[in-house]
Design goal:
Structural class: alpha/beta
Strand content: 15-25%
Distance between the termini: 68 Å
Number of helices: 17
CATH architecture of the largest domain: Alpha-Beta Horseshoe
CATH superfamily of the largest domain: tm_1862 like domain
Radius of gyration: 23 Å
CATH class of the largest domain: Alpha Beta
CATH topology of the largest domain: pyruvate-formate lyase- activating enzyme
Number of strands: 15
Largest sheet: 9 strands, mixed
Amino acid sequence: MRVMSATVLTPQPVPAPPLEKQTTVGNYFVSNYPPFSFWKPENVDEVKAAMNRPPKPGTPLGLYLHIPFCRKRCHFCYFKVYTDKDSAAIKGYIDAALKEFAIYAGKPFIGGRKPRFIYFGGGTPSYLSVDQLKHLTDGMKALLPWDEAAEVAFEAEPGTLTDHKLRAIRDLGVTRLSLGVENFNDHILEINGRAHHSKEIARAYNFAREVGFPQINIDLIAGMVEETGANWRECVRKTIEMAPDSVTVYEMEIPYNTTIYQKMKAEGKLVAPVADWETKRVWVDYAFKELETVGYTVASAYTAVKNPRQTKFLYRDLLWAGADLLSLGVASFGHIGGTHYQNHADFEPYVSRVNQGELPIYRALTPNADERLIREFILQLKLGQLNLSYFRNKFGVDPAQRFAEPLQRLKDWGFLSLEGDQVRLNREGLLQVDRLLHEFFLPQHRTNRYV
């Protein structure tokens, strides 16, 4: 009798989807879930219902205020900013933001809580004068005291900072100053529409050190228009020489509402005039490795910190763990009692609505339990590691089973490992985490534009 031998099949490695080569138009950075394009005006009543409920015990409260004023609009900027507002318009905006805050301050969702973290974003918060900043913050503190805030973060453009203004910002209670450096080369700064120049960076940084901010962060952008490898290495060298408490490195993207895209559209071009994705990831990797050489620790896909025990970023960490965020100002994004919302994205409608005594909310979404799980899981994956037990305890779901397929795919592609209770991304995975996160999206959320 003829005996047939069994054939043993050796599993073959599964290749990851190819990296996008060129930088084309569209949002790359994942900052929330479900995507913003699913937030709808018809859901606004859900926010109003949420703010009339007491908070879930133990939920931290944060404040965000959008300051939409700038000296110039950067060509890559996709935030809501204005460069044409005079002092009267700015005062009107500050007064409107305080009126908006006053509407919220008495709502049941506050529940006696004081903000644990506060963030002034933009735009350019440091564009405001000292008197304007004091008027704004005094009004905010009168409505909801800051005495229990562990972090007050403040974005600043180096060219707007003087010794006098920096001392005033510190006196307001700011603990984390984030300098929008982006690059140290004057030509690259100018061609990308930045308002500041290289000489202003060192001056502002040295002033800030003298004032004594507990944390100073420097932002860099890899792959700006006309960036070169040699210049990028020099930017990293100068950053290390300054020795900030943390460094945030973003990869250049070209969303639809940027002036770079408008020019691309007018010229009929599909590919942006910036470095390709592979080059940008190589540059970020270089920055991280050089920072690690001098003692920094890579703390997320975008950040390296000098001392992980002392240097925290509560705005990010608490928000990614489901904190409430009372968000004020034009186009700002918030989260109240499980419902996400965004304010009107234009100046006049925002101010007008508030002055009529109405909340200026434009759209909202209340994710279901599975979507909340996905949101926290993918955002915390940006930290490079997460604990499965956190999700089992909070959501009553085993994420190793719920996300078995995408976790296995990322493992097969060589980006991820499971070590006991921990999920870890290696450096290669971390450098492209935003594109990998889509593997965890529900099918209906994978094809729509992110914004």
